[in-house]
Amino acid sequence: MPSLYVHIPFCQNKCDYCSFFSVPVLTSDLLDGYLHGIKKEIALRQMEAPEGVSSLFLGGGTPTALSAEELNRLLKAIHEQYIFNSKSSMDIEKTTEANPGTFKPEKLDVLRLYGINRISLGAQSFNDNLLKRIGRIHTVEDIGNSIKMIRKSGIKNLNLDLMFGLPGQTLFEWKDTLKKAVTLTPEHLSLYALTVEPGTPLSLRTGFKSENRDYLPDDDLQADMYAWAANFLGEQGYCHYEISNYARPGFECRHNYSTWQGEDYIGLGPGAVSCLCGVRSKNMEDICGYIEKLESGIKPIDITQTEILTVAQRISEYVMLGFRTLDGIDTGLFAVKFGEEFQDIYGQILTDYLKRGILQQENGRIRVDPSYYFILNSIVREFII
Ligand code: SF4
Question: Of 249, 247, 255, which is closest to residue 84 (Cα–Cα)?
Fold first, then answer.
């Protein structure tokens, strides 16, 4: 069963570092067209999940940039058509991303009505100056107020997104942010290094010179931030189960985990990516174009971004994603999936990395030693076939 991702490409304002596909909510017409479009897209693609979907993730953008009524329309359309099914006896995980600056009790009521049981809150930092410097719309106080609302509603699975390597950020400030975050007892934390993408407002004013107020922490400082966080969160009882993700036992994100395990996923909405039976496709990153295609009864796919994955691509991606997780790669499952032994494909390079202690082999699994996570990209490059 695939998982289901729905992209909501709207935000109240663009953050200064953001290169994700999202636009500021300017007119209700565009939003209305988007909601009509989603309904049509669901109807067109419903047959892709005859046995249902295993989890739901509303991402963006900012899902909570929608009003309570708009969220209700969106969730109603999804729940009218999709069956949510679980292989295990656990509840279906239904997550929404949320921005503390757009969170309201009436929106939370709607989310609860449709069984949303996990909130991923884009906190980013517990320092008001840094939040301002990267153009976030919220304050530290807003984060606290949102968490109070979330807990009051009975939601027991809260993720906080935090970023390090922010312009002008010191190790002391990063430690302070993490310490404040854990006092709020989130079940899950996602920590991302800021990437300054060309063309973003932040890229025009940042630099590496320390006289620049927006200077960027260098690689050594970022590595220190990453290492300190891993150590600190381990002491606080969080398991570092994926390179950027930490969870209390039992609160690992099931939706993302299924993707990292190479399971199929359906992506709805402008710019959303799907991967089904070895075919990866992407919807067009153009809200008006997306609406027009669906009005004509055509799938809003960007054909230039659709590809049938070769076996080599599928193996490389599986290894790349598997190495990001603490569980690593189940070599038995690998052989079943691809009809070849992991050892036969990677022979010498595998032996070499095992000898150097960069990879570890245990109970039929091969994983990267977490102390090498900070250089994971260069390790993975060696395993692309
Ligand atoms: S809230 Fe997220 S998606 Fe929206 S502009 Fe900021 S970083 Fe981008």
Answer: 255
Ligand 1 centroid, distance to 90 Cα (angstroms): 31
* CA 202–ligand 1 middle distance (angstroms): 13
The 10s digit of each residue's pLDDT in 322-339 is 999 999 999 999 999 999
Q: Encoding tokens for residue 224?
A: 């220190």
Tokens of 328: 């690593």
Question: What atom in ligand 1 is closest to the CA of residue 61?
Answer: 3
- DSSP lists the bridge partners of residue 4 as 56, 266
Q: What is the C-alpha R_g of the chain? A: 21
3-state helix vs strand vs coil in the chain, percent to 5: 45, 20, 35
Look at the block and give the residue holding tokens 């279906």: 92
CA distance 160 to 58: 15
Ligand 1 within 6 A of 60 CB? yes
pTM for the whole structure? 0.94
pLDDT digits (tens, 9 = 90+) for 302-321: 999 999 999 999 999 999 99
Strands 10-11 and 359-362: unpaired
Enclosing H/E stretch for 315: helix 311-323
Q: What is the per-residue pLDDT for 89? A: 56
Residue with the two structure tokens 């990063």: 174
* 66-75 tens-digit pLDDT: 999 999 999 9
Residue 93 has pLDDT above 60, yes or no: yes
Best mutation site among 12, 19, 20 for ligand 1 pocket (most ligand atoms within 8 Å of CB): 20
Angle at 13 between CA 69 and CA 161, to 5 degrees: 85
Q: Name the residue at shortest CA distance from atom 5 of ligand 1.
A: 14
User: Which atom number of ligand 1 is nearest to the Cα of residue 60?
Assistant: 3
Question: How far, in Å, CA of 86 to CA of 124, rounded?
Answer: 32
15: Cβ below 6 Å to ligand 1? yes
Q: Is 61 in the pocket of ligand 1 (CB under 6 A)?
A: yes
From 26, 62, 197, mutation site for ligand 1 pocket: most ligand atoms within 8 A of C-beta? 62
